[in-house]
């Protein structure tokens, strides 16, 4: 029996209440976490996992959709606490997660410094220092587009670049479930591109949404927004139309 648990984690960030939705996949042999939140989120993750009737030390694998701070924040801490966890990411994304390449978010933030007004620069510099403080962690296994992992009834890797070059989504054919990561988000009940102003390649991000239409999606899970309520295929089609018309 395969299970898909949504870990809706509520917290406060920048004086605003927010929710992220990592996903926990479970079969007879493995417990797989998809993304893990901000730095220092291990206690929040532990609470959410216990709420599913499991424990953090039962996690065998951790799939990272991309190297944004809210997806890899406690990864190094988790690997230290639970050395058996195997970390999996796209081959393009792996060096950023491991710290052998400079974070693309740091590069992006640094590139805006010269055009910011002087009174905005201290806050921007503080944000850059925060990004730089995220501890790198080794990736144990890299994956490529269309690769099928054998766990939990099969997990197909869907390379969905745009938000970041190595971003991946996951398709579970057994349940026709798509774990979108940040390929799309839910805002006020509607699908949208995640933070279009910060997406590294918006045109590529829209092409990635179009690629998702190749899959028979009955259930759609967004890292920001959780379960999508409604016709996922129609909503993806509408989103592509909004950005290309």
Automatic annotation (TrEMBL):
Record key words, sorted: Hydrolase
Signal peptide annotation: none
Any one Gene Ontology molecular-function term assigned to this protein's record: hydrolase activity
Aminoacyl-tRNA synthetase found in the keyword field: no
SUPFAM superfamilies cross-referenced by the UniProt entry: Metallo-hydrolase/oxidoreductase
Known catalytic reactions: 3',5'-cyclic CMP + H2O = CMP + H(+); 3',5'-cyclic UMP + H2O = UMP + H(+)
Any Pfam family matching the protein: Lactamase_B
SMART domains: Lactamase_B
Alphabetical list of InterPro entries matching this protein: Metallo-B-lactamas (IPR001279), NDM-1-like (IPR050855), RibonucZ/Hydroxyglut_hydro (IPR036866)
Record-annotated Metallo-beta-lactamase domain positions: 19-224
Chain's role: Counteracts the endogenous Pycsar antiviral defense system. Phosphodiesterase that enables metal-dependent hydrolysis of host cyclic nucleotide Pycsar defense signals such as cCMP and cUMP.
Protein name (record): Metal-dependent hydrolase
Natural source organism: Paenibacillus elgii
């Amino acid at each position: 029996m395969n299970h898909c648990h949504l870990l809706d984690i509520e917290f406060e960030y920048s004086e605003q209440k927010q929710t992220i939705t990592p996903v926990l996949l479970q079969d007879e042999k493995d417990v797989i976490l998809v993304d893990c939140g901000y730095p220092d989120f291990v206690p929040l993750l532990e609470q959410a996992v216990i709420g599913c009737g499991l424990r953090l030390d039962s996690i065998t694998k951790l799939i990272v959709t991309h190297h944004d701070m809210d997806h890899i924040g406690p990864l190094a801490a988790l690997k230290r606490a639970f050395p058996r966890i195997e970390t999996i990411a796209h081959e393009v994304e792996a060096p950023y997660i491991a710290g052998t390449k400079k974070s693309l978010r740091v590069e992006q933030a640094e590139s805006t410094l010269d055009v910011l007004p002087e009174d905005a620069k201290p806050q921007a510099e503080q944000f850059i220092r925060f990004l730089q403080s995220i501890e790198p962690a080794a990736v144990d296994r890299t994956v490529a587009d269309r690769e099928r992992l054998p766990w939990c009834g099969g997990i197909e890797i869907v390379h969905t670049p745009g938000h970041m070059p190595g971003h991946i989504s996951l398709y579970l054919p057994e349940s026709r479930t798509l774990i979108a990561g940040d390929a799309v988000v839910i805002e006020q009940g509607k699908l949208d591109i995640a933070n279009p102003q910060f997406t590294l390649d918006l045109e590529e991000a829209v092409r990635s949404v179009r690629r998702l239409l190749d899959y028979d999606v009955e259930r759609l899970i967004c890292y920001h927004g959780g379960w999508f309520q409604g016709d996922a295929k129609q909503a993806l089609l509408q989103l592509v139309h909004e950005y290309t018309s």
